[in-house]
Amino acid sequence: MAILSFLSRASRTYKGYPKLLVLCTLSLSSGGLVAYSESQPDTRAPHVDPNEKEPKKKRVVVLGTGWAGTSLLKDLDASLYDIQVVSPRNYFAFTPLLPSVTCGTVEARSIVEPIRNIVKKRKGEVKIWEAECVKIDAANNKILCRSNIENNLVGNREFFLEYDYLVIGVGAQVNTFNTPGVKENCHFLKEVEDAQKIRRSVIDCFETAILPGLSEEERRTNLHFIIVGGGPTGVEFAAELHDFLEEDLVKLYPAVKDLVRITVIQSGDHILNTFDERISSFAETKFRRDGIEVQTGCRVLSVSDKDITMKVKSKEEVCTVPHGLVVWSTGIATRPVVRDFMEQVGQAKRRVLETNEWLRVKGCENVYAIGDCATIDQRKVMEDILSIFEAADKDNSGTLTVEEFKDVVDDILIRYPQVDHYLKSQRHLRDVTDLLKDPQGNDWQEVNVEQFKLALSHVDSQMKSLPATAQVAAQQGAYLSRCLNHIIQCEENPEGPRRFRGSGRHRFRPFQYKHFGQFAPLGGEQAAAELPGDWVSIGHSTQWLWYSVYASKQVSWRTRILVVSDWTRRFIFGRDSSRI
Amino acid sequence: MAILSFLSRASRTYKGYPKLLVLCTLSLSSGGLVAYSESQPDTRAPHVDPNEKEPKKKRVVVLGTGWAGTSLLKDLDASLYDIQVVSPRNYFAFTPLLPSVTCGTVEARSIVEPIRNIVKKRKGEVKIWEAECVKIDAANNKILCRSNIENNLVGNREFFLEYDYLVIGVGAQVNTFNTPGVKENCHFLKEVEDAQKIRRSVIDCFETAILPGLSEEERRTNLHFIIVGGGPTGVEFAAELHDFLEEDLVKLYPAVKDLVRITVIQSGDHILNTFDERISSFAETKFRRDGIEVQTGCRVLSVSDKDITMKVKSKEEVCTVPHGLVVWSTGIATRPVVRDFMEQVGQAKRRVLETNEWLRVKGCENVYAIGDCATIDQRKVMEDILSIFEAADKDNSGTLTVEEFKDVVDDILIRYPQVDHYLKSQRHLRDVTDLLKDPQGNDWQEVNVEQFKLALSHVDSQMKSLPATAQVAAQQGAYLSRCLNHIIQCEENPEGPRRFRGSGRHRFRPFQYKHFGQFAPLGGEQAAAELPGDWVSIGHSTQWLWYSVYASKQVSWRTRILVVSDWTRRFIFGRDSSRI
Ligand SMILES: Cc1cc2nc3c(=O)[nH]c(=O)nc-3n(C[C@H](O)[C@H](O)[C@H](O)COP(=O)(O)OP(=O)(O)OC[C@H]3O[C@@H](n4cnc5c(N)ncnc54)[C@H](O)[C@@H]3O)c2cc1C
Ligand SMILES: Cc1cc2nc3c(=O)[nH]c(=O)nc-3n(C[C@H](O)[C@H](O)[C@H](O)COP(=O)(O)OP(=O)(O)OC[C@H]3O[C@@H](n4cnc5c(N)ncnc54)[C@H](O)[C@@H]3O)c2cc1C
């Protein structure tokens, strides 16, 4: 899966060009921007006390240096704000390449960039604290942080930070669905360290399986790799592992090569079920041909250090299978610090932290939440239908003419993006005013409230919450930085849609997500991609597209060059199997 | 410090050529050999049972995949022997670049090569077990091994291996001299993992020191880096750390850059005291200029998690200094498994395992020991003086003519290398027969036993044990593989010197070490080198020589390219400070 933000633009520009050209041009062009700004370092010495008074600047505290936080920090104007960043890791990690790190196709160092490097070009100072936020005190506008470095260094590891604006971008944690034994016995694939641990453990499995004195059964058990979760991450890891095995390990461990087994366990009916059906069935066929077992319709009941117990849904049958290594990759859950915060702001009952369409946390004036840690609660048209009607009915006639409707249409489309999605999903509607037709397809000259309700009664059906992807997180970060940078200008000259349930306009347009498609690398130099406009592309050429997009999306020239040279090294020398 | 094995040859060949040419040619030429042989992989499936009977082949078990073991395995003929390798790590590590890994100048992966890759080109199968030898049972020709992988995999982790020949190449462990607190509170720099841990910890020190709420004193403490041991490793680490700081960290942590302190503690009077005096005083001057403190004549009494206590020898004064990180790099000690073995073979009282000049363990017929784990007990000429005299005195006249002496001179020079060293150290002796001169410098026509003893009485003064270096270990491994490969031919046609205390000839020439010099990188793109022929070279050009030699000595083309591209990356982008 991948962010294809460049892709739609690229596919227009480069249609028909040879792949390599696309690769080079994409990487060079997008990287150029980054490199240019990187070449202006700022080495002024900042002071260290974060709570000192700088009366002119408002304090923005950003939690997290993942996709959301980093994208925000890249553009947030440090001459306007006193910016402080709190994150337990001092770098940004390019998560879409994490599965490649598990088998050494790409090195861990090649996909990380110190956050200080990313922000050091800023116009003002950005203070960065490698610590975890352990408590948000929303009532007092402050947070408690704790350094999580485990060593013997001196000094108090806890400190408070005060904020005027808080941006929560702490991402999510792995969801074990409280399945017994998962935390203790499974690998996860969320952080860089996880990927490194998996890499070592895969080698451990081989080194142990080959030792003298084991029965063949024991060797088989140690070489049984189980992946729980048939989403893009699990599938990509399975494919990587299979490639690693076929291309490298068979040569080094020939004695046990026939004993390896890879199983993907999926609770749904198909793997990659968020993808187009053609992709998911291609993936299943390819996996079957490669000898990767796919067990769909299976729910894991528990995992012990030696085996995994699951229930095959259709047969109501429970079976237990021994394993060598289990990677758990099934979904995400809210972090404790966010849970606690949700209770403070009256969201205790919700599953995920909710924001409004401007990414502001509901129930809190000055806290924003972006990325995987939050979800947008999109307002329904039907909730506001009366206000919309009143606002549109300028002459207060109790009926709406098409002209009057046209006057508010743009604001409606901006304020309620689901209307646009609905129009696109209904082939017979060419224009939003087509909504205002009677059941026979004739234009209504005027509509009353009830008819208006009826006309718009289906538009909310196209609302769906955004996926938890880097693509969304990065767009939200960029959106929010723009808002914060223009907060004063937009106070005076609001640029948002009109307020239907109040007067005037919103300061900003609400956040709007642009989906650029997604990738699923399937191993053996083949990938599948779902591109905008329902376009599906599968095969070797798609893998090249994948290479070019992923190279272009790197956060710095350093990582871009490292990633490309890792790929090249892998082609020439294979993957390294040293256990470090 | 470095193995300059190519250097003396290279300096002859390339004298006067530009440095870069030397770099390229050296890397390419030496690498070429490796790459050629690498290109012939062998993928026949081996069987796994190691104790199966293969009546024709003798079983050689090799312990360790360090410099000694790997150098042995590179050439040991797998068509002659059933070869099994036991080592707790499945790769070879290029230790001379370990100090560069501590600061990210070179990546850990770039200096390791899987041992299976190194041996997979062999004519026969080489079995490799990732395990530790925990017990050598010399009486029964078998060893007990234990896998040290900590995980949940199934199967018995312990197994026995039987051998006909055992080669011990397990290296040495860190010597703490039983100083209290060292094991718990110090970093070591011996394994790849150690270097990675140091890298993370250095970043931890900075991230902690910069946190809000610390006093300046606390920041200073966290940024006090202490290196115990002023040998080549300690000095190189100090230089690397200083470079990392100056070139990278000052830009990223400007707020605390002036609080950093690096101290090298050395018990002797000078750092680098195994080097030429000019080098050690250059190093001290350079360090002083760079602000690295050098405390000589200091003995560490104890280390706690917060501070280090030491005694300044000259003043009999004890002082305690707070620290952020201590790297302990003072010398080596025998591993427990070797200690236990020494007791079995009657070497309980010795400090180090002793072998004879053919690297065979004393007190054991079929066990060899190479590298850091052993030392050669060179036989003294004076111990054999009577036998030599008798052997040389062909006509049993009781006196030796110069002619008779000349007849045995070659054998003496081979059997007792100290004689040659002695001759070279005495300017007035041009030839070994010059020894047979009377005190006035006139040739003796004939010498009797007492005169003969007198003539050779000083030659043993030039005996010294070999240093524990990669250079020695690699040469020993290569020597031993040649011996084992030719054991049958040489049984029939011995190629060694005559046996003075027996009849016939030795099968092989004894091991003879060739010293090619050593390097000391001092940071700031400067290095010092001690080259053969008392030649000392210091400065930037020496650093280039260092680059070229280290690139050329890499064990594979993969690591060679990786190391060179790491250096290049560092020049362009600096070192990565992400804490992973
Ligand atoms: C293996 C893998 C592959 C993926 N592939 C793709 C892909 O191909 N395409 C795609 O679009 N998406 C992909 N995703 C999803 C994508 O990574 C996430 O959607 C994205 O990272 C979300 O960004 P975020 O900033 O919200 O959270 P994250 O990127 O997870 O960042 C969270 C940040 O918050 C920090 N943090 C955590 N706790 C605290 C705390 N208490 N206080 C302060 N800071 C804290 C973390 O250290 C981290 O810096 C993948 C994810 C994974 C795990
Ligand atoms: C940081 C550093 C820098 C150095 N720089 C230089 C330099 O520039 N030039 C130079 O000449 N020398 C250098 N040296 C010294 C050099 O590394 C050693 O002399 C050399 O490694 C010795 O080789 P060895 O094979 O005897 O031991 P090692 O290389 O230490 O290898 C020992 C092997 O035995 C294995 N082993 C350990 N215990 C067991 C067991 N119980 N059973 C089986 N196997 C076991 C280990 O895993 C390892 O594979 C350096 C050393 C260090 C630590």
UniProtKB/TrEMBL annotation, chains A, B:
Chain ranges of the EF-hand domain: 380-415
Q: Where in the cell is it found?
A: Mitochondrion inner membrane; Peroxisome
Protein family per UniProt: Belongs to the NADH dehydrogenase family.
The cofactor required is: FAD
Keywords for this protein: Calcium, FAD, Flavoprotein, Membrane, Metal-binding, Mitochondrion, Mitochondrion inner membrane, NAD, NADP, Oxidoreductase, Peroxisome, Transit peptide
Membrane topology of this protein: Peripheral membrane protein
SUPFAM superfamilies, A to Z: EF-hand, FAD/NAD(P)-binding domain
Species of origin: Quercus lobata (Valley oak)
Kindly report the protein's main subcellular placement as a broad class. mitochondrion
From the Swiss-Prot or TrEMBL record, give the protein name. Answer: NADH:ubiquinone reductase (non-electrogenic)
Keyword set includes Signal: no
